[in-house]
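Support reply, case 0932

Customer input (verbatim):
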Amino acid sequence: MDHSVRTVREAVTEADRDLKVAMGLLDARVVHGDTTLGDTLITKVRDAWRSRAARRLPALDEATIERHDEAGAVAFLLEPDLKEGHGGLRDLTALGALAVSTDVVESDDALAVGRETLLEIRVALQQITERRSNVLGLEQQDDVAAALGDADADALMTRVAQAGRIIMWHSDDAWHRVRSGLAGPRRRSSPGGDVALGYGIVLRDGEVVLAEESLADAAPTLLHVGAAAAHTGAPIARTTQRLLADHAPTLRDRWAPETRDAFVALLGAGPQGTVVLETLDRFDLITRVVPEWGTVRSRPQRNAFHQFTVDRHLMEAAAQAAALTRRVERPDLLLVGAFFHDLGKGSPGDHTDAGVVLMGEIATRMGYEPDDVAVLVQLVRQHLLLPKVATSRDLTDPATLQTVADEVGSVATLELLHALTEADSLATGPTAWSPWRVELIQELVDSVRATFADQAAAPTAPPPIDVPPGPAPAAPTVEVRDGTVRVVGPDRPGLFAASVGLLSLYGQDVRAARAASSADVAVAEFDVEALFGKPVPGDELEQELTKALEGRIDLDGRLAERARAYSRFRLPGAARPADPLVLVHADESPVAAIVEVRAPDGIGVLYRIARALVADGLDIRLAKIATLGHDVVDTFYVVDARDGSRPAPESLLSIEANVVEALRDT
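Our regenerated output:
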């Protein structure tokens, strides 16, 4: 309610000058009095708003973003602001303003229900407090629940979360379309039309679209779409959201490796992955991937320690973990452990005990091997261990350190648990990761690591592959079978690098690689997945490989050109990975040196790394390839190219600088 005395012209002028006045008048209705005069005012204000939309909407957008940043999200906060929060009543007013001047706002019964839910709760809150309060505090939640007939405060806050999510999704979706419209077709579209993102997915007019609709019911498609949206920073198109909602299957059987990889890639995208997960959850699609997710969806945590609902806390924990993946040997286990560590809060009894059971079932279904399942279960079981011990025990007591070491089991698991603790704490709230806690936990981790001295298991040697007997072929031959590309050729530097470079140009995602040589014969095997649904053209690859080895193809130039073309479509919302990290382990394997590379993903990254290793006089015997969101995590077993022996430590000194240089500007 507001008061002023103006003529219609004066009111229209004031609305054009002051955004708050415009918002009030766009939401106006005649309650009593001169209906003709009131309707005239409303019509003229709306006409003026509509005619000046291109000028007024950016200001409203800026104000909306600022309000969201200040108030937080209604759906996820312990004490939400029902009016000013993201997904609150003020967003409904903004949606009304957008509806006056655009066609971006969809009619939705659920949106109307969300509005009525927040209105009735706000009215009850103000009746109980006898104040103009919009923040639903902890101390009022029980009374408001009782006044409205909810079973308890948890039931009330679940309704708040559900309403806030509906309004938030509609608000975000509408504003994306407004921004796209204001940007114009030249800024939001690709000059040549659709940009292929692989797996039947394209970037079209600034949105991720499943172009091959027949793939909608394929098991990994939902996750591929999600990972593509997180990678580009572009939203999933409405048509694709509905297509997936109608056809995406529930994953109840054991996952294929590509399904697990797509899930990990989505989790590894950081904050942008959280945006995508929220979109998927709007259509209840996360439960198609993990049916158990429904038990924590919109579930409140009514204690002052936590600031988010359980589901949002898990999303935030995974996003925080994505920034820590370079600190651990197994980034995928960190991301999965972070996303599921509190899933047991949706089950009766102790949430850790319940979570251990759920993690074992889910990890097995995801296709992890028993050893990895055991680590994930351990992460859930011990996710509170480090902060508990660090803040309540004598960290100089050898017995305490040995107890923690026995509980954890290995240095690798200790590092995973340390990173999970940090991600969990940062996702909990500002008080959970104070400098004091950081220092104590770091001291504990360092001391426990010292008790594991010389206990870390050395990586195994590369598994052998068959090298055909006889003289080396004059030119490379290529055999393609069941997702594996086998290249046999003369043993010469560059065969491995040229092969992966050409596979990249042919739209093949290399998932793993092995290499060996005997006498003058070299063999390289690649497990590949077709990004664009096209199989490897074996005969053509043979011809191109010969040309590449003879220097008749500019692989560097062609890959760089393709990388530049795709870089134009990376949107500002996409995460920006850190600089490349190269670790060289000279003595961890008895037969090879090990080179670990963690770097931003991009066109030809594996080729550039391989080329740099070859230039350093090394042969690649094994490559383990993984993509986590915007990062690649690649491990190479390398030997001396002259005699196949383990390289001398002094010969490895330049590798780090050379690989980083090769990856510059990718």
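We compared this against your earlier run and they match. Two observations from our side: The chain is about 50% helix and 10% strand. The longest helix spans residues 153-183. Please reopen the case if you see a mismatch on your end.
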